[in-house]
Design a protein that fits this description.
Number of domains: 2
CATH class of the largest domain: Mainly Beta
CATH architecture of the largest domain: Sandwich
Distance between the termini: 61 Å
Shape: extended
Radius of gyration: 21 Å
Length: 185
């Protein structure tokens, strides 16, 4: 038998077999006496489905509060919600830097970021702060260009909803005209 991993208190296991209705991929052996909580497959799936539905409802409600998406039909909004991925950055992190390839569109779900313009050998020039409900990154996707600004996390953390280039074009291509902003640089 090949030993691959030791699980510590609080770790979970066995969820993949439940989620995918498949055979167990590993054998779990207790190295010392321990207590485990058991969750049956039906209940596990119900919790996952309920959690996914709640997240979908929360994101749909959030997007409904953003004026940019007012012109989307309900089916487009649902596709947008399904295409979004959530990511988090810490204060001082760069979401992306000026000159990077533009492959994603971002919506700020919580927190603040600063838009800055890099300057040769000098401190980056502050352009503006974006807050919850604001979006960025669309110009590089629409114009198929490199990033024209750097985006740096201002708040303690920022939670972003992101859409990759393919999903952006497929879902939001019809509202491209509403995405263009008059950015000062």
């Amino acid at each position: 038998m090949l030993f691959t991993k030791e699980l510590q208190q609080g770790a979970g296991f066995g969820e993949l077999a439940l989620i995918y209705n498949d055979k167990r991929s590993a054998t779990i052996i207790a190295l010392e006496p321990c207590e485990c909580y058991l969750l049956d497959g039906v209940l596990c799936k119900q919790i996952i489905i309920r959690s996914s539905m709640q997240k979908r409802t929360d994101h749909a409600g959030f997007l409904n509060s953003i004026q940019l998406f007012d012109n989307l039909e309900s089916q487009q909004k649902l596709r947008l919600v399904d295409g979004l991925m959530q990511i988090t950055f810490k204060q001082g992190d760069y979401v992306f830097k000026e000159g990077d390839s533009g492959e994603e569109f971002f919506i700020i779900e919580k927190g603040e970021v600063d838009c800055v313009k890099e300057q040769d050998g000098a401190e980056p020039k502050f352009i503006r702060t974006l807050k919850t409900g604001d979006h960025f990154g669309e110009l590089a996707l629409i114009n198929n260009e490199k990033r024209s600004l750097s985006i740096k996390v201002r708040s303690e953390a920022v939670e972003l909803l992101t859409l990759d280039r393919e999903a952006f074009t497929r879902i939001l291509g019809t509202i491209e005209k509403f995405l263009k902003k008059d950015y000062q640089q």
